[in-house]
Amino acid sequence: METATRRILTSEGLDGLLAALKRRGYRTVGPTVRDQAIVYDDIGSIADLPGGWTDEQDGGHYRLVRRGDAALFGYAVGPHSWKKFLHPPTLRLWRAARDGDAVQVVAEAPPEQPFAFIGVRGCELRAIEIQDRVLLAGQHADTPYRERRRGAFIVAVNCAKAGGTCFCTSMNAGPKAAAGFDLALTELADRPGGVFVVEIGSEAGRLMLADLPQRAATEGEIAAAEGVVERTAAAMGRAMRSDDVRELLLRNLDHPRWDAVAERCLTCGNCTMVCPTCFCTSVEESSDLAGGETGRSRRWDSCFTMDFSYIHGGAVRASARSRYRQWMTHKLATWFDQFGSSGCVGCGRCITWCPVGIDITEEVRAIRDSEQR
Amino acid sequence: MAAEKPRPRLAVWKFASCDGCQLSLLDCEDELLAVADAVDIAYFQEATRGTISGRYDLSLVEGSITTAHDAERIQEVRRRSRKLVTIGACATAGGIQALRNFADVQEYASVVYARPDYIRTLATSTPIADHVPVDFALRGCPINKRQLVEVLAAFLVGRRPVTPPHGVCIECKLKGAVCVMVAHGTPCLGPVTHAGCGALCPSYDRGCYGCYGPKETPNALSLSAWLAALGMDERALQRVYRSFNADAEPFRKESERHGG
Q1: Residue A353 within any structural domain of the chain
Q2: Could you tell me which residues come within 8 angstroms of residue B205 by beta carbon, excluding any fewer than 6 positions away?
Q3: Is A61 in CB contact (< 8 Å) with chain B?
Q4: Which domain-ending residue is among A205, A233, A261?
Q5: pLDDT at residue A3 above 60?
Q6: Is the Cβ pair B192, A266 closer than 8 Å?
Q7: What ipTM does this complex have?
Q8: How close B58 comes to chain A (CA, Å)?
Q9: What pLDDT is stored for residue B42 in this prediction?
Q10: Average confidence score pLDDT of chain B
Q11: What residue numbers bound the domain in which A16 lies?
């Protein structure tokens, strides 16, 4: 693999990449503007990308705003993550129908097309890597995830803008796409015509790029791309010291801060729904009126609901305090014990999309500061 | 197979209400024939001229108790019903007419009716569960027809209906809807409201009006602080919780904290 060399694609070349992916049978999904936010959805060409848009983010606050230029990737992550495709929010697992005295069980078919993800950020690559470990490693790999993950083509983008709630540098998860991509782009938005410095991450990426109009990157362009990432890394909206956070939280399970955050927490579950690594699901059974057909489906669930911890007689985590603490200590501490890494990638979604702006970095800092007093 | 078994007898009862929830049953166009096949609709004034007689396997009860006569009638309905399911905000929380619980009903009557002395009504509008034991409560103003079919299907096989008590936010997120409060600054009751509508209003760029009443463990106090920061004044905060589920306890308590 020629990972050391960098190539250049223009906007036209990027459009050609999308067309080539579609031609080869991929379902191309990427960022696009809908309902005043940048979401992930099916895209056909670069015209569907949020050209000229950026976002303003803070705790419980997101606004789409115009940039002064036509950059295609000049924003941070929005409310969606790629788990929407790899680990769908709702999924029928199977259904069964009466056939005389027998029962016919029909399994759900896997998706017909492999995914091509356009514009995956460094933190999101790390999130996919974490979900790979959670859902594929071990004895009981998740079949629907495996079917969707297999053969996915990933076009990463090195962030040119840090969001107001971003802290990927604190979690060593970005802003540069480190691994797990087929191609990685750095947009040089100040160059006319759209210039993307391309790094090749896999043989599939090399082959895909070979068919597109492209050229070698100059040393100046390579340096400019590195400058983009450095400037983004220096502009993080949030920060969280993460090297000792596991120990910090586990020795503070009875800290009064949990009561303070519980007063604000709505137990709405938004933080878990937008988190790119949260993976919990609930299984639901259905039956029709005639009693002839039944089915099983699953949907994203959240450790903030009562049903989530319901066992015989009641919910184990009835208070908001216990639910918030469960989520945060699992994400930042016990995830290490269970999966060998932090469950947080510093994307900031849980901060932005919390309806009352609860900030995980602020909560960690409050507990840390109380120890130093 | 099914034809040999006697079908369960279904009754639909109306108390103080607008009929909208009962009509959800007729609105089940695709499923209506299956419903009619699965149950014997023995009493349903919106659809048939059946009379009250005998016992019913399942009673769907719409509406709240606002008169002494209805307070007696619900006892009779309960006696005749093996299972009693309340449908809609009136039956489960007292409905919009429970606004009288915050005011003087005589004064209301004198303003609304030409001859208020003709009106015989209770001072309060109360949910069915305040009067008789209820086997299951289906929320909503109006109820969601898919949830109604789910309740019927669950009843027919003796399982628990799948109508999760979590908030509307989870419905928004499951369908990929953009949060109207975070992204647009639109006040929304979704974080404290029971799911079931499929996040209807937020999907159309509107904030949630709380039609399904309080979710499990709602934290309206915290939400109100945020709504105030978005620009809602005390009077608006009082009114936002006082609609179809005004007398559901968490909403009633929160509305009483505001308005001065």
Answers
A1: yes
A2: A35, B180, B184, B186
A3: yes
A4: A233
A5: no
A6: yes
A7: 0.96
A8: 14
A9: 86
A10: 94
A11: 6-233
| Residue showing tokens 């979690």 | A171
- Give residues with Cβ within 8 angstroms of B248, minimum separation 6: B92, B93, B94, B213, B214
Whether A88 and B175 have beta carbons less than 8 Å apart is answered as no
Q: Of B34, B175, B182, which has the smallest distance from its Cβ to A355's Cβ?
A: B182
Are A305 and B164 within 8 A, CB to CB? yes
> B7-44: per-residue pLDDT in tens?
999 999 999 999 999 999 888 888 888 888 899 988 88
For B180, name the nearest residue in chain A, comparing CA atoms only. Answer: A35
Residue that is last in its domain, among A233, A260, A284: A233
Same domain, A211 and A288: no
Phi, psi of A141 (to 5 degrees): -65, 145
Report the run of H or E that residue A199 belongs to, with start and end: strand A195-200
Give the count of alpha carbons within 13 A of B116, CB side only: 8
Amino acid found at A140: H
Among A36, A287, A306, the residue with its CB nearest the CB of B216 is A306
Q: Which own/partner pairs from A145-151 qualify as long-range (CB within 8 Å, at least 24 positions apart)?
A: A145/A86, A145/A87, A147/A110, A147/A111, A148/A85, A148/A86, A148/A87, A148/A88, A148/A110, A148/A111, A148/A115, A149/A86, A150/A114, A151/A114, A151/A115
In chain A, residues with a C-beta closer than 8 Å to the C-beta of B184 are: 36
In the block, residue with structure tokens 């929160």: B254
Higher-confidence residue of A81 and A194: namely A81
Q: What are A285-298's pLDDT values in tens digits?
A: 999 988 889 999 99
What structural domains and CATH numbers belong to chain B?
9-157 (3.40.50.700), 168-256 (no CATH)
The reported pLDDT for the residue numbered A250 is 98
Same domain for A182 and A286?
A: no
Asked if A274 lies within 8 A of B166 by C-beta distance, the reply is no
Name chain A contacts of B159, Cβ cutoff 8 Å.
285, 287
> Using the beta-carbon criterion (under 8 Å), do A287 and B192 form an inter-chain contact?
no
